[in-house]
Design goal:
With 198 residues, the chain is mainly alpha-helical. Helix content is 58%, strand content 5%. It has ten helices and two strands; from the N terminus they run ααααβααααααβ. The longest helix has 21 residues.
């Protein structure tokens, strides 16, 4: 007797190694923390060039690098460095590599926050006299005063809420068998372990 895709036992010849191990919240959170550590130089430089030694062009270049980090790494390498270090990979249906569309779709919760932060920083660059600040504390005070005078407090609250989108999306991992975050469901992707099975 032979096995075909139409039979109930169509996968009985498949070894256990072929079945993927989906990665849950804890390891994915660990990978995200590693990525934050890896990006500290870029983040620190962006803060420096936006608040201490203001340079709009360098700031926007650094933000572009930080925006491209996740989708480009996941498309080209199969995961961010944090995921790869912890032996994970992002794949599409059937274990295939991500398309550019899937990589960008997975990044949407972060992209919304990044673009809103760029908008807020652009507004900060427009504050009269902001380039003459005496350091980060003075910069923060000037931005806060400007927001209070111009009704920007609501924008700050919205910015904080938007910053929670990646976490909310990732919490979906806790509610399904294939451990897909909301952005995985949207992009039809999975995070799987690359650790060898014994």
């Amino acid at each position: 007797m032979y096995s075909s895709d139409e039979t109930i036992d169509s996968d009985f010849l498949s070894p256990d190694e072929v079945q993927p191990t989906f990665v849950g919240f804890g390891p994915r959170f660990g990978a995200a923390l590693l990525d934050v550590l890896i990006m500290i130089p870029v983040t620190g430089a962006a803060i420096y060039f936006s608040a201490i030694s203001m340079n709009v062009n360098v700031y926007f270049l650094l933000i572009l690098v930080s925006i491209l980090y996740k989708p480009v790494c996941e498309k080209v390498l199969g995961g961010t460095p944090g995921k790869l270090i912890l032996k994970m990979k992002v794949v599409g249906k059937g274990g295939v590599a991500l398309s550019w569309g899937q990589a960008i779709m997975r990044y949407l919760p972060w992209l919304v926050g990044a673009l809103f932060n760029v908008y807020m920083q652009y507004n900060a660059f427009q504050i009269p006299g902001i380039e003459d600040n005496d350091g980060f504390a003075d910069y923060s005070r000037m931005v806060q005063e400007y927001q209070i005078e111009n009704g920007g407090i609501m924008l700050s609250i919205v910015q904080s809420l938007i910053g929670l989108l990646p976490l909310v999306s990732t919490l979906f991992v806790l509610g399904n068998k294939k451990k897909q975050a909301a952005h995985d469901i949207l992009a039809e992707t999975y995070v799987v372990s690359t650790k060898p099975k014994y």
